[in-house]
User: Which sequence fits this backbone?
């Protein structure tokens, strides 16, 4: 059977980007191998997906043929939980090119199925994590200039009109006043923080024309990062922006299981308040944190790396066979 003409036409238009993608996959594996990282593979089907309240997941059921009982499973939103278990087991420096899944995410930069490159290194500091990430991106994207490094508070002072972000942390009215904006109805401090990020900070970073690391996020936005030992108001979290795109998000990892459990509980409550489902959490992951070495790791949007390397305008151009939601699919 011959292939559908529409598929041949679409592939022909995208082959240069897709061939670049294949080279970047091979180059990435070689780069990490040369630096002593081992490539790992962790499950796509997991008993607990990512816990962040803003992530929607794909859910399914495992149906044993012999009838021992059904089990609810999810497609992972990240390999992070699984890789940290491997770190606790002594795997050492490691990376994974992981297929991950996030329900509802479709845009020029988002796909419900995409590739996330994550790497982790025991003993690495926040500065070391930025150095290693920059070295990888320089090798893949040909960067010659050093990336700028700004704390989130510095970025808000320069680009959002907020002189001291940490002084108004958690106080939505004070943040609105400092930024000279009117808070929206039921807008929380976190909502306003990310509104200012999207409306003021990120556009300003895009205009700089060079990659930028934003580090030391407010402690309320720590995610899975530990608080900074020198200043508990901030977390050792870092994001990388390049070409107007958020390219990576990483942490010096939290290894305190009690604090991580408290964060999971807060996220569960936040999901419930917004009408989200309760996924529970992975107790094996919390137990693993007790023996996990202090480490740093980062998640890089690999498809976005390919977009920057190939000049593609949309993520669909760098996917061999894009996932198109059923409601938007053209049946032929």
Assistant:
């Amino acid at each position: 059977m011959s292939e559908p003409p529409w598929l041949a036409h679409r592939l022909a238009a995208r082959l240069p980007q897709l061939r670049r993608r294949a080279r970047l996959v091979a180059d990435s594996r070689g780069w990490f191998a040369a630096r002593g990282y081992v490539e790992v593979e962790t499950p796509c089907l997991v008993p607990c997906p990512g816990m962040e309240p803003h992530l929607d997941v794909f859910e399914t059921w495992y149906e044993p043929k012999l009838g021992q009982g059904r089990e609810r499973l999810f497609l992972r939103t990240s390999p992070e939980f699984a890789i940290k278990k491997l770190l606790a087991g002594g795997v050492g420096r490691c990376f994974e090119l992981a297929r991950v899944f996030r329900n509802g995410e479709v845009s020029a930069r988002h796909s419900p199925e995409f590739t996330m490159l994550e790497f982790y290194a025991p003993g690495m500091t926040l500065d070391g994590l930025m150095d290693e990430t920059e070295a990888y991106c320089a090798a893949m994207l040909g960067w010659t200039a050093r990336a700028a490094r700004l704390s989130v508070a510095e970025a808000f002072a320069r680009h959002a009109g907020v002189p001291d972000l940490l002084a108004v942390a958690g106080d939505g009215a004070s943040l609105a006043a400092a930024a000279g904006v009117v808070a929206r109805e039921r807008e929380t401090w976190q909502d306003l923080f990310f509104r200012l990020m999207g409306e003021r900070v990120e556009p300003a970073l895009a205009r700089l024309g060079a990659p930028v690391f934003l580090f030391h996020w407010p402690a309320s936005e720590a995610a899975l990062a530990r608080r900074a030992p020198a200043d508990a108001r901030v977390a050792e979290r870092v994001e990388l922006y390049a070409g107007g795109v958020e390219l990576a998000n990483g942490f010096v990892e939290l290894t305190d299981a009690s604090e991580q459990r408290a964060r999971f509980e807060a996220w569960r409550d936040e999901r419930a308040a917004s009408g989200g489902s309760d996924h529970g959490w992975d107790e094996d992951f919390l137990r693993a944190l007790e023996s996990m070495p202090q480490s740093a790791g980062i998640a890089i949007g690999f498809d976005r790396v390919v977009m920057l390397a190939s000049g593609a305008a949309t993520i669909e151009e760098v996917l061999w066979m894009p996932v198109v939601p059923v409601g938007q699919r053209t049946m032929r």
Q: What stands out?
A: The first helix runs from residue 5 to 34. The chain has a mean pLDDT of 91. The first strand starts at residue 38 and ends at 39. The radius of gyration is 21 Å.
